[in-house]
Amino acid sequence: MASELEPEVQGLDRTFLECSAEETAGKWLQATDLTREVYQHLAHYVPRIYCRGPNPFPQKEDMLAQHVLLGPMEWYLCGEDPEFGFPKLEQANKPSHLCGRVFKVGEPTYSCRDCAVDPTCVLCMECFLGSIHRDHRYRMTTSGGGGFCDCGDTEAWKEGPYCQKHELNTSEIEEEEDPLVRLSEDVIARTYNIFAIMFRYAVEILTWEKENELPADLKMVEKSDTYYCMLFNDEVHTYEQVIYTLQKAVNCTQKEAIGFATTVDRDGRRSVRYGDFQYCEQAKSVIVRNTSRQTKPLKVQVMHSSLVAHQNFGLKLLSWLGSIIGYSDGLRRILCQVGLQEGPDGENSSLVDRLMLSDSKLWKGARSVYHQLFMSSLLMDLKYKKLFAVRFAKNYQQLQRDFMDDDHERAVSVTALSVQLFTAPTLARMLITEENLMTIIIKTFMDHLRHRDGQGRFQFERYTALQAFKFRRVQSLILDLKYVLISRPAVWSDELRHKFLEGFDAFLELLKCMQGMDPITRQVGQHIEMEPEWEAAFTLQMKLTHIISMVQDWCASDEKVLIEAYKKCLGVLMQCHGGFTDGEQPITLSICGHSVETIRYCVSQEKVSIHLPVSRLLAGLHVLLSRSEVAYKFPELLPLSELSPPMLIEHPLRCLVLCAQVHAGMWRRNGFSLVNQIYYYHNVKCRREMFDKDIMMLQTGVSMMDPNHFLMIMLSRFELYQIFSTPDYGKRFSSEITHKDVIQQNNTLIEEMLYLIIMLVGERFIPGVGQVNATEEIKREIIHQLSIKPMAHSELVKSLPEDENKETGMENVIETVAHFKKPGLTGRGMYELKPECAKEFNLYFYHFSRAEQSKAEEAQRKLRRQNREDTALPPPVLPPFCPLFASLVNILQSDVMLCIMGTILQWAVEHNGYAWSESMLQRVLHLIGMALQEEKQHLENAMEEHVVTFTFTQKISKPGEAPNNSPSILAMLETLQNAPYLEVHKDMIRWILKTFNAIKKIRESSPTSPVAETEGTIMEESSRDKDKAERKRKAEIARLRREKIMAQMSEMQRHFIDENKELFQQTLELDGSSSAVLDSGPVVSGTTFTALGPAQTQVSEHRQFVTCILCQEEQEVKVESKAMVLAAFVQRSTVLSKNRSKFIQDPEKYDPLFMHPDLSCGTHTGSCGHIMHAHCWQRYFDSVQNKEQRRQQRLRLHMSYDVENGEFLCPLCECLSNTVIPLLLPPRNIFSSRLNFSDQPNLTQWIRIISQQIKALQSLRKEENASIPASSENSKNMEEVELPQGFRPDFHPQNPYSENIKEMLTTFGTATYKVGLKVHPNEEDPRVPIMCWGSCAYTIQSIERILSDEDKPLFGPLPCRLDDCLRSLTRFAAAHWTVASLLVVQRHFCKLFASLVPNDSHDDVPCILDIDMFHLLVSLVLAFPALQCQDFSGISLGTGDLHIFHLVTMAHIVQILLTSCTEENGMDQENLTGEEELATLTLYKILHQCTGSALKEIPSGWHLWRSVRAGIMPFLKCSALFFHYLNGVPAPSDIQVSGASHFEHLCNYLSLPTNLICLFQENSEIMNSLIESWCRNNEVKQYLEGERDAVSYPRESNKLIDLPEDYSSLINQASNFSCPKSGGDKSRAPTLCLVCGTLLCSQSYCCQTELEGEDVGACTAHTYSCGSGAGIFLRVRECQVLFLAGKTKGCFYSPPYLDDYGETDQGLRRGNPLHLCRDRFKKIQKLWHQHSITEEIGHAQEANQTLVGIDWQHL
Ligand SMILES: [Zn+2]
Ligand SMILES: [Zn+2]
Ligand SMILES: [Zn+2]
Ligand SMILES: [Zn+2]
Ligand SMILES: [Zn+2]
Ligand SMILES: [Zn+2]
Ligand SMILES: [Zn+2]
To answer: Where are the compositionally biased (Basic and acidic residues) regions (predicted)?
Structure first.
């Protein structure tokens, strides 16, 4: 196949070879104009090496390029052979102490939560393992590619910046040393020359924009007409679109198209056609036409081949530069210098600038190559990193603008480098001060959000898709801002203050655009027509949340900055709301002799906005001020006097009123967008800078106001002023207005208002508001979360606000407030609140949602009841306020407050006259409780001479003044204490009164009279005793009541039994009889049972009654009755396979008669054990089928089960099934009714008889075949053949079963055949009976394995369903021959028999090394009746069974001895004492002879016997199970308990001598010749000569692969894995087969293969070879177990890896270190061993319908 191109290529090769690198370099050294010289070289050679045809030949190109192009450069640089030059450079180098390893996609990275300066500081695995952080709290993530290891960067780590490896170099570092001093002048000069030329060349060619022309100095003499049609990547078109278009445009196959598309997606471009200009143009126009319909078309260019060649070399060159500078830090510095040197065009003309600025025009592949180069050069050199950062900042705006117009993800944009530059604290600070970076970022951000409303606020309404897209991209700027601010300065310079405040101004401008955005008006009458857009505004708010917090942190670190910022913020707030009273008529409010002026404003009628970032920022700064020293030493220095408290509180109050009104149902017509906004306003993601700050702002305002004034304004904003200012308004209101909704509404509003007051006074856990620290704040959050219920770690983390470093601070305090409870096999570890923390519970904790509040209330009351305490939930004792907020407590004792409390209590006292609610009362009680706690605290903490001005107790003791003369609050409480309708609140009222008395006592007692004190406690004590007594009495009453009810119930029951006496007796009897089955017979220990043979223990089977789960009718299992069936699931299995590379190639021709001992493909049958009538099942199945077919047609859905394949769900337990097994009586009893003669033949005789019978049959068959036309002669022929005595081959036995049962026998047989071989059903196929026997044998073997692995006794208590399944399956297999052709079964028997007793007409049987003996035993025993039924000589079936069993056992022993590999052990040679050992040795000697001494020299008898015993155990156990279920002989009780191996018991049960070798000795006559025939086989010889393998015994159980303890080593392993099909590319979804350990490239086009005419992913394809359709995988990136079965079924399963908190991390989102949980892994293995994977998938899919829709076959 010599192509035309070849001679040319070879010719070229020669000219290349002549080009010597040394000579070229020498020429260059002499050159006067080096640039021209080099360019000429490149112009000549590059197009001759690269791009010579339609497809690239990377290896050849690289080889030539190295030789002709790069080689000379290396020579030039070194001035000698680079083979010596580079190592010299390397030696002279003092390598940097930075690791700088660039991460591959999917590589694990580690960050230390204790020591990393911010979460972007990460280590590579190697550095991490060698660092101190491995013992710290760390977080693990997988890299998205890009980014590098920060090991060695002292700025990145608070502690331990070096790992062991990189620490080596740090001892002698002098930071400032110039790496150039280690290079010679010559090298520096040459490097400089060559780097400058090459770097310029690469930049020039990559940024070249003409498609059909080259730069002047690279032009070629003659230009060929060879072009490429180059397709570029975009993020608009889908894979499918591209593939489809390509097939049309360039006329390629789908496979090729997929290949193109994959490369385009990965590299950003790929040529799809090569040829002359016209040819390429044509393809281009088709592509453009085809993709331009909805969107902008795919980008395609027709490029000249020489241009593409130069560009390819340009990229090669950049990577080359990257590797060359790895030799020496000096070379790296030179490259940096070259890159950043300003070019001829001044500003922005350096090579680095040029690359950055054309970033968005470059294709993906080019970008990633030069980004990599930047990372390994500029970012690794501390000096140049700074200079580069400056360039980056200077270009920042332009780069961002380009990025906005580009459609590629940020990860492939140069803007993503910001994380490397901005997160370095010194760089960030330098950029802020020198480049004003903070301002630039914010301004750039504002520039891109131009959409504003009339007031200059952002407007997201009527937002186009394009704007939305831009909005998403612009959010990355916020990320940059975050990087810049992430580390707070410890020291401030004036310059930094200045620039930060400038940035703060810009930031305020930004917030100003948000203040009041998206305002809403209450909709009345009609529902809103369109849900307004709200998400964009909230996204912005959410993204800015951390920034706002960080800005506050910066301010807090410098007092000057803080005060300045505070002033600025206040100024902006005044600009926003300065004129808020304009145009409004002031109104005057007055209650209780207090009056205040305010504006008229109704939230329910006017515009209101939930976005108030400026006032919230001010609130934050105010609290920071309150913490500062100034506030508490010189408050006069603060700009407090400029504040107008009514203005401060106005907007936050409106916002809170809005929430209350929404809650009261007043805004229903505004739709869901509002509900969502309110939700996020309170949500943990936003509340820190929204709801929390509004509360703080109110606290700030109120602390500067007369509380009475505030309360009146609040009443007015809540639109409740009327109700409380007008005496008896409430009464009127309830009687006059009958509108229930309005009453309800007002009640809710009152409740909400009271709640707000509780929050304003009670929420003092923010440092600065109350005298607390951050730890106490977080502790309180946790206590309240855990008051709701115990929580898992991740749940708790989710409920707590995270800071910008993703920390909640929870770990530091959790131990002090909670106990950890470890998880079991399922579920998660849980934290439980410590009991002593319950006293800090506040029912009105402000972060509770309503649902959480009521759950917490219920939980806490229940807890108190359990502890036999009263159920009052009084307010907790609170920390004191900070001085600035101290006056807040006065709200509680203000006149208006007392009036509100009094009014509500009054309503409750006269409870029928008013509209009021219990929650209202509960809140009032809570407020009173708070006031009492406050007063008590004040009294207890008061200095001796201090007068406590908080006098709540006095105020509530005073009755109301004339004219209403209402009773005092105290009096009303006393009244309510006995109100029957307030049972729930009784405990609380009692608590209030008790506390009141205690306070009175303190007040009355001067500090010098402790007597009163004790009296008080005694009082309290006695009241507590009284409480206790009361409670005890109640408990007693409850107990009596319970007993009475119980007595009544049992009385009723007795009546019932009396009436239905007969019925009950029956059931009792039934119970008795069923237990009698188990107890009947001598189950006394020591009694021996025999499971088979003439001496078989005779058991009379009890009559068996079963109930159909469908029609509920009972039915006896009988031979002639209607069939009863068990739902069953048949599947192919490789669970026991010892050879996974083997699978059935051509099922039509496959002969399953002999199972190979590698058990490579078996058929497993399982059942849920549910019994139905055959006809009931048939009816059920038909209806399911009809329904599903209709549904599938209509919905085109995948179902969790495949009806067309006969699958259905068990009607009772929904277990996946695909057929049914008929229930049968022990089939042997039916046929062995013929007499058992006492003198049965021995083995030798029996074999002779059977051989004769077989011979007779065979000659009959032969003659039959020979004389088919002369059928009349048949009988004559029969006589001619000499028939053994009593053998009547013409006899055809009657089938004893009913038609119905026969039908079911066929049904199940056919199903087993169909599934086991994966063929079309054919009940006539001769392989049907074989498959039935095989399935029986295989299922028993797999169960024996499970029992052994779990160390469970063979006949221990098996689960019912398993027991039923095995029994039915065995009996079915034994009965199946009755519905098969007698001739076929006889033929099978003959052939099976021939494998042990050779026979002339069967020379194609396998050698005994290649037969699984248990399968052989089952088949022989179950096929035997077909022969025996024609034998009237008196040989019983039992005799046959016994001899078959002995024969197979002996064959197995020989098999074991032949394959045993016992090591010689001289020590034991002497102890040849045991009879068994001697016998074994004798047998071994015989084998040794028969094999012509090929068998290994005689080892010790002890070893031999031991290996026989061990090797044969599984076989004996399986046989015991088999005969047990076949003949129904109960198992001896000894085998029912676990413990020793029960070898003796098994032998007894199976009618074997305990010295198994005796079998040979007893039948030595025939056995010697048989052994000889077995050993003579050629295969055996080959095996013994080491030419082939054989399975040895016992076979070890298959296990899932070993998984590493630490999950990250799996991630690491997977990150090194590359897709096997696309040449070294990293796989995106590496997936590990847990069965065989293969790593696969899942969920990707590249690794799709065709399977049965469909494209399937790598996992599905793998299951077909590895697990015959079923598979267990670990998706490494997701940390998720995947179960697959067939093409359509799959589910995800929880992985066996847990973090320290006992939780899995599916999707690796949390990043906590994960460790293998062996028990959970064992559970997965057990599912596999039990063949329950498919069932598990079925259940998962039934439970979660979305799983059904997933395209599992593409994984
Ligand atoms: Zn590293
Ligand atoms: Zn390191
Ligand atoms: Zn650490
Ligand atoms: Zn039925
Ligand atoms: Zn079931
Ligand atoms: Zn596998
Ligand atoms: Zn792949």
So the answer is: 1021-1034
Smallest CA-to-CA distance from 1312 within 1295, 1337, 1343 is with 1337
Ligand lying closest to the C-alpha of residue 95: 2
855-912 confidence digits (pLDDT tens): 999 999 999 999 888 889 999 999 999 988 999 999 999 999 999 999 899 888 887 7
Alpha-carbon dihedral 481, 487, 492, 493, rounded to 10 degrees: -60
- Point out the ligand nearest to the CA of residue 1624: 7
Query: Any residues with CB less than 8 A from the CB of 434 and at least 6 apart, and which?
Result: 390
Ligand closest to CA 1177: 4
Rounded to the nearest whole angstrom, what is the distance from the C-alpha of residue 373 to the centroid of ligand 2?
Answer: 20
Q: Check if the beta carbon of residue 769 is closer than 8 Å to that of residue 780.
A: no
pLDDT score recorded for residue 439: 96
Whether 737 shows a pLDDT value over 60: the answer reads no
What contacts 24+ positions apart, CB below 8 Å, involve 1340-1343? 1340/1366, 1340/1370, 1340/1414, 1340/1418, 1340/1518, 1340/1521, 1340/1522, 1341/1136, 1341/1159, 1341/1162, 1341/1414, 1341/1514, 1341/1518, 1342/1133, 1342/1135, 1342/1136, 1342/1162, 1342/1164, 1342/1729, 1342/1731, 1343/1521
Mean pLDDT of the 656-683 span: 92
Q: Which ligand has the nearest atom to the CA of 1141?
A: 6
CA of 1697 to the centre of ligand 7 (A): 26
Ligand with an atom nearest the CA of residue 1112: 4
Q: What is the pLDDT of residues 499-534, one digit of tens each?
A: 999 999 999 999 999 998 888 999 887 877 777 788
How far apart, in whole angstroms, are the C-alpha atoms of residue 309 and residue 303? 10
Residues with CB under 5 A from ligand 6 (ion): 1633, 1635-1636, 1638, 1666
Ligand nearest to the CA of 1627: 7
Are 106 and 1678 contacting, i.e. CB atoms less than 8 angstroms apart? no
Q: How far is the CA of 1733 from the centre of ligand 6 (A)?
A: 15
pLDDT tens digits, residue range 385-425? Answer: 999 999 999 999 999 999 988 888 888 899 999 988 998 88
Q: pLDDT tens-digit profile of 225-250?
A: 899 999 998 888 888 888 888 988 88
The alpha carbon of 688 and the centre of ligand 3 are apart by a number of angstroms equal to 28
Q: Given this model, what pLDDT does residue 1601 score?
A: 94
Distance 1645 CA to ligand 7 centre (A): 7
Q: Is 586 helix (H, G, I), strand (E, B) or coil?
A: strand
Span from the CA of 1167 to the centroid of ligand 5 (angstroms): 8
Instruction: Give CA separation, 85 vs 78, 186, 320, 1217, in Å.
Output: 5, 13, 16, 72
Which ligand ends up closest to the CA of 1629? 7
Distance CA 1461, CA 1479 (A): 18
Q: What protein residues have CB closer than 5 angstroms to ion ligand 7?
A: 1619, 1621, 1641, 1644, 1646-1647
Taking phi first (over 0 means left), then psi (-120 to 50 degrees means alpha), and beta for anything else, what does residue 836 get?
alpha
Q: Please give the Cα distance from 677 to 681 (Å, whole number).
A: 6
pLDDT at residue 1709 in the model: 85
What is the CA(7)–ligand 4 centre distance, in A? 82
- pLDDT tens readout for residues 1527-1546: 888 887 777 766 556 788 88
Ligand sitting nearest the alpha carbon of 1634: 6
Distance 1643 CA to ligand 7 centre (A): 8
Band (1062; pLDDT cuts 50, 70, 90): very low
Kindly give the residue spans of alpha helices, DSSP state H, lying in 1196-1323.
1227-1231, 1243-1266, 1274-1280, 1299-1317
Cα radius of gyration rounded to whole Å, the chain:
44
pLDDT, position 915: 76
166 CA to middle of ligand 2, Å? 5
Measured distance CA(1136)–CA(1119) in Å, rounded:
35
CA–centroid distance, 1668 to ligand 7, in Å, is 22
